[in-house]
Design goal:
Helices cover 0% and strands 49% of the residues. The strands form nine sheets. It has a two-stranded antiparallel ribbon. Strands 3-4 form a two-stranded antiparallel ribbon.
């Protein structure tokens, strides 16, 4: 990243691995995999996307890894919060936890919260649920109740 150098009245390069520098030697936000500690970009633990600024303890892991305790381990694919390498407490949107296969599996199309592979509890915006499936509402409808009712419209629609 670059910062405005008041001495030379121009943009100057900041420290290595820094996205938001405050000077040539100080950084307020580092690139993924690095954490700002007293203005310096320090490498985060292996497979860690975001670490704590004081202790460098991992707070968020890279894609495909799960935080188990304070370490990033290869986790359950499509899992946001792993309890272990074989159990997911919360799958990504569009996925649900299948205990039988111990995997996060894609659920019905346009579904935010799944009951199982065939039944949806909460549909994505602009879709409504009927018999566990998601159907698109009318044009411009944010939260359709059915194909004909629309309690909330998208901006620019009424």
């Amino acid at each position: 990243g670059y910062y405005y150098n008041t001495t030379y009245k121009m943009c100057s390069a900041g420290p290595v691995n820094c996205t938001i520098p405050t000077s040539a030697t100080s950084c307020s936000q580092c690139t993924d995999g690095y954490t700002s500690v007293n203005g310096q970009c320090k490498a985060a633990p292996t497979n860690c996307k975001t670490a704590g600024a004081v202790s460098l303890v991992c707070l968020q892991c890279n894609e495909g890894y799960s935080l188990v305790g304070t370490s990033c381990v290869y986790g359950v694919p499509n899992c946001l919060i792993s309890v272990s390498t074989s159990y997911c407490a919360q799958c990504k949107d569009g996925y649900y936890w299948d205990q039988t296969t111990t995997a996060c599996i894609a659920g019905p199309l346009n579904c935010k919260l799944h009951f199982n592979s065939a039944s949806c509890l909460v549909c994505a915006d602009q879709y409504f649920s009927s018999s566990g499936m998601c159907f698109q509402g009318g044009t411009g409808c944010m939260s359709p109740g059915s194909s004909t009712e629309c309690p909330e419209c998208l901006d620019g629609y009424y």
